[in-house]
Specification:
By secondary structure, the chain is of the alpha/beta class. About 35% of the residues lie in helices and about 20% in strands. A four-stranded parallel β-sheet has the order 2-1-3-4, with helices on both faces. The chain has a four-stranded antiparallel β-sheet with strand order 5-8-6-7, with helices on both faces. Helix 1 packs across helix 9.
Length: about 325
């Protein structure tokens, strides 16, 4: 029996529908259920061939559990080792190397000293920073957001230098990114599952939250293909099994705005019934694919092109 486990927090509609959908397919030797953990012992496998992770970004205990499970052969969606290493600023840096348009972005040291550090810990950091050079490169209006955060926590829209310094003073120990504002004509949120299944959804981030998937535009066939190619390129280089990519269209060019979302919103009340049904069906099919391909005790994780190409280069030496 190959078990598919759903690991989740307070989220309900997607995890429950996912488990029900997998089981409704009646695939011989495949069953899905919510993950149950009563103990975690080093180097000991779990009972799951596949675990779908929706919560470890908020619970370090779960992340450690998943790494041990993956080491012992569980296929974890998404790869917990890469997820632990990845962040939004790196995503933007990578995009510049794979010909994906992104907003101009810089990373900033935290406004307050991190715990257990002092001024001497930053002897390699110039003071003051080249603020004039930074502001000239980014321009205003701009957005400031955590370099590794999720959702819209601690996100600021800034119109000038004075606003920047005022708001940056509120960020305490957060490491922030300052990013060019892309004034867009159209905006899309795109699910990518299994590195091959893409759902491109018109999205209006300026609407109230419950109306953001209600938009009066849709892409041409040519633009759809362009966006699909960008989404697949990003997710295959990063190695995410389940991710969303947000694309802002400016002057006909899709700019990748946010594409480090390995536990994206999939609540039916947020995304709407039609999108929800697609996500549930596609995620269930992909998890079953992973379970059927599972090899006990082997590395069953997905690794992105960035890591695989780096590893192949290392072999040459």
């Amino acid at each position: 029996m190959k078990k598919i486990g759903m690991l989740h927090g307070k989220e309900r509609s997607f995890p429950e529908a996912f488990v029900q959908r997998v089981n409704s397919k009646n695939i011989k030797g495949i069953i899905a259920e919510p993950v149950q953990i009563d103990k975690v012992m080093q180097g000991e496998p779990t009972e799951y061939a596949v675990i779908f992770d929706r919560i470890s970004q908020d619970v370090p205990f779960y992340r450690a559990y998943l790494k041990n499970a993956a080491l012992c052969g569980t296929a974890v969606i998404n790869n917990p080792f890469w997820w632990s290493a990845d962040e939004k600023f790196f995503n933007n840096c990578l995009a510049t190397k794979i010909n994906v348009p992104v907003p101009k972005t810089v990373i900033l040291p935290s406004r307050d000293l991190p715990t257990d550090t002092s001024a001497e810990s930053f002897s390699n950091l110039a003071y003051p920073l080249d603020w004039d050079g930074i502001f000239q490169y980014i321009g205003f209006p701009a957005y400031m957001k955590p370099f590794a955060g999720g959702g819209w926590k601690s996100v600021y829209q800034l119109n000038n230098m004075d606003e920047f310094f005022e708001k940056h003073a509120e960020t305490e120990q957060l490491v922030m990114m300052l990013q060019e504002e892309i004034k867009f004509d159209e905006y899309y949120r795109c699910y990518c599952i299994g590195g091959k299944y893409v759902r491109i959804m018109p999205y209006e981030p300026r609407n109230p939250h419950h109306l953001r998937y209600v938009a009066d535009f849709k892409p041409s066939a040519e633009r759809y293909k362009l966006m699909e190619d960008i989404v697949l390129r990003i997710c295959n280089y990063l190695g995410y099994d389940f991710n969303t990519v947000e694309l802002a269209i400016r002057d006909g060019v899709p700019y990748a705005i946010d594409f480090c979302n390995p536990a994206p919103d999939a609540e039916v009340t947020s995304v709407g019934q039609e999108n929800f049904d697609w996500v549930v069906e596609t995620a269930a099919n992909f998890a079953i694919e992973k379970a059927l391909a599972h090899v006990p005790g082997a590395d069953n994780l997905t690794w992105g092109e960035y890591i695989k190409r780096s590893a192949n280069k290392a072999k040459l030496y």
